[in-house]
Every structure is written in structure tokens, then in C-alpha cells.
Amino acid sequence: MPNVLLTDKCTRACPYCFAREKLTDGAEHFMSLDNIIYLADFFARSRHKRFSLLGGEPTLHPDFPLIVKYLLLRRFQVRAFTNGSMAPDKCANLTELFRAANRGAVKNFLFVVNINEPSVGDAAEAVRLDDFLAAYGEFCMPGFNIYRRDFSMTFLLDVIERRRLAKSIRVGLAQPIVGRRNAHLDPRDYEEIGRRLTEFARAADEQDVRIDLDCGFPLCAFSDEQLGALHRRRAQLKFVCNVIIDIGPNMDLWPCFPLSAFTAPDIFQFRSLPEITAHFQKRIADELAGEPAVIYEKCGRCRQYKRGQCHGGCTAFAIARARRRA
Amino acid sequence: MKTLSIPAAGLARFAQEPGLELNVRFPSLKQFAQAPVEFPRAVCGLEFETAAGPLEALRTAPRFRRLTARYAAGMIDSYLDQLRLIKDTGLQLLFVDPTRADATHLKLLASLGVRAVVYCLDPAAFDAEGFREAYFYELYNDELAGRIEPFATIKEQDGVRRRATLWTIYHESPDAACYVNDGGQLTHGRRCVAAPAGPDREPRDFVNGLFRARHPCTVCAAFLCCEGYFQFGGASGAPFCEEMREFDAEVCRRTGAQAGAKDAGHRQAD
Fold it and tell me: Helix, strand or coil for residue B3?
């Protein structure tokens, strides 16, 4: 599922930031409208219906409302991944369009709001986020990134209730960025993460809130009992690591943020999304030189891995290991 | 409701030349909305010089073969908000001397199914980059929801005998179209209006005159789609003439035809 970076500028400095490699502290770059049109045509040709807008902070793009309006009119499902720092009036005249887009069974427009624990960031950030959620809560789905063992997500339940957010939480695992330093989890912590997540899912279910796992979780982070408990609570479980395809403001490409060390000059060399995916899959396989892209040694003997039920965690661990060895 | 009366002398021409399209040109959509007009049956198209605000008045306009409004620069948001209406009424947007920024908006609208027309009028205002952006988008986009004229028609006609020229695509050929203003007076096409008064007021005479004068245009590869259009009114050496030739060559390159040659053969056979 490709991500389109509207800008390389962000208003936050999250300790786990997986996009850091691609962000700038200097003059920002914004994706041009011509490139947006090119991508919309490219995605349509590839029969891909979803447009995920990222950054940096995508709402910083001066034409953000116009871009969203255009993509919705082209009948894309739009997801804008934001930290919620946008001024509430920036998209005020789009709320009717958002409502119309979400009228059917499928929600065609959502802000996926990355919400950190209250201890991260300052008071001003918290106020801006709350103002944003007050204005756009009905179009927001909360997201949370786990980057330490002792995380707590309980505060989100109150935010969801108070600001009428979508009742599901997108949960990501902070992964290492190959060739860079960022706060991320050690795979040895995953069992503890699994235990805490299951505990949280039980509490969230009381409020009808479910959790959706993002990529990079290994299946063995959860026991059979925990998997059953999560399943009963409608958690969306996936244990995959795929080439996502991130497209930078200047149309440069890389497979995903943890693997942003693999770059391709630009999208204009390719005719479709599957062609880009194949390009990166080959380059990753070449770098691993036959070694499986897994986080644990035991993965090679695992039946779930062999059957494709689990991809063995984030490929960035395997690449980092291979590079250290080299 | 005021009835648009056209001088009998003007209407007589319709009786002599069947198939002639009568178009009415209004200074603005606002003016049209404020003073509704009843049109004679011969009218088949309306054109508005400005249509920057709400287009709602178009809903009440009679159903004509062609509704055209000049694109108001910088109003892309407003056009997107009214996209349903634009598509329902079949309104085509005329981009006169589009800048590079206008060309981006033209692409946005064309990709959403709107019919756009690129029109080059003023050599001083011509933006080659904007022109190229528009024709590249039409030429290399096989799944474009809308159309970008005149490029779409020329592209479609390549490889077969060309019948449409810029005069006909822009509905300015005296063989096919004539215009009246909102007072009912006969006028010329947009290009003719802009052209200074001179002996060659009629484009047809002008084209014939090019042959008589052995004008370099007549041996140009792109002449079959242009027919001296950019030279009309004494605008000699108009910069868009060169870009139009370039476009024609691109079309031929894409289809493997030799620029102009194939069609020229047909023409001689005529």
C-alpha cells in the first residue's frame, strides 16, 4: 500500500520517528500538484484505490485541502497520516465533503492521527492536538506507536470517547531504520508487548474499541491464549512485512521507512506499482543473499513462517544484521 | 423574458448554408443570469467571457450542443466545488493563453472528466511551458477522463485523413460557425474579433490568400491541422505556431506517421 509524502517537514520530533531519514531541518520540499496528478493517474492505472498521504506532516502542504478534495473527487480512499497539529480552520470547508465521502459502508476519508503518550511533547502540542480532534474527531482514527516496553495506551480510550474518534486504534511497532539510530524495540521485548497489548484490548473492548496491528509484528509475540482473546475482541491481526512503497515529495522511492536506505531515483522509470514492488523485492533479496528476512533464528524452523502466516517480523532487522556482518 | 433578435440578413445566411452553427457570446454568466434570454431555434451554443462565480445559472440555460466559459485563473477550488454541475451541463472551459499554473489546473479538471480547450490568442502572453504541459497530458494519457482540445481531436485523427483543423475545432470556421453577441449583432470568432481590421476579415479568404501568396505556412508539416490559424490577423511569427508544429510532430512520432506527409497525399488527391 504506497504512501505519498506531501512534504519532508514535520512539526514534531517523536523519539521513535521512523521517517527521520527522509525529513529535513532546512528548507522544506512540497510535492507539486503536477506530481499529485501523475500519481493519481499512476495509481488508477495500477488499479490501486487508496491514497495514503504522509510527511513529515502532510497538512503543512499549502494545497493540502485542494489535494484532498481532488483525490476524493477522483474516488480514491484517502488516508492522511497526521500528528494533529493542523489549524482547525484549514479544512473547515471540506467537512461536508468528508461526510459525503464516508456516508457508505466504506470510510473514504480518514485522518489517521498519531497520538503519543501525554508525557511525550509539550503542553502547547497537546492543546493543538485537542483543538484538531475537537474539529475533526468524527473523521479521525487514532494511531499509536509502541517504542518502549512499558507503554500505556489507556489514555486513548478517554480521547476516543471525548472527541468521538473512530473506535479502532492503529498500533505500530517502532522499527529500526537501517543505517540510522532511532528509538525502537528489541525483538526480545515482543512477548511483553504482546502481553500488554492483549491486556489493553480487553479494556478497550469494554468501550467497543478494537485494535488494528500495523506491519512488523511476529506471530510469536502472542501466545495462543492471547491470540484467542484478541480475536474475540475483533482485533485486526496481521503478521506481515511487505514492500510498502514510499514516494517522496520529489517522486523518489524507497520500500518503506525502515528500509529507506534502499532508494530508487524516481517513479517515472516504472509503469505500475507491481513493477516497483518487484524492483525492491529483488534488491532486498540480493542484499540478504539467500538469508531469510526474519528477526529470530528460530523463524527458519517455524511452521507459521513456512506457511506464510507470519513473515518473521520487520525485514530491517535482517538487513541491519547482514550489513553488520558484511 | 427578452427574445434575442438577430437581423434578418444574418439569419438568411443560415438558409443558404445548412449546417452552419450559430453561437451566442455573452460578456458574463452573471449578466446572462440576470436577464434571461429566449433564443431563436438556430442557436446551438453559448459562450461566456467570464464565469468566475457560481455557475448555478447554467442549470436554467437551454440545452445547447455546446456551452463554453472562459476559465477564471486561480478559481480552481470553486470549479472543483461545482464539478457535478459542470459535468451535468457539459460545460467546456476555455483556457486562453494558459500559464504554467493554469495548465496544472487544466490537468486537474481534465483528469476529473471536464472538457478543456486551450486557446492561444496573444503572442505576448503565450507560455510555451503551459502549452506543452497541456498537450503532453492529452497526448500521453490514454485513460484521460476528459478531453483537452484541440489536441484530443488532432490526436484521434492522426493516421487517417484529417478533416478537422484549428478553425473547425475552435468553431471559428466560416464554413461551420458564426457568432452573435448578446445584442444579436453578428460577430466573428474569437480570433477574428481580436484581429485588427483588414482586408482578410473572412478566415476562408485568408487561407486561400496564403496559397496565392505562397506563404511558408502552406508547406509546413502542421498546416493540415492549423491552416494558417496562428497567422490570421497579421500575427506573423506567433510563438505558439512553433509549439503547434512540435505537437503535430509528436503525434506523428507516436503513431509512426511522417509529419503531415500522409495527409498531404490525401489532400492532393482531392
Answer: strand
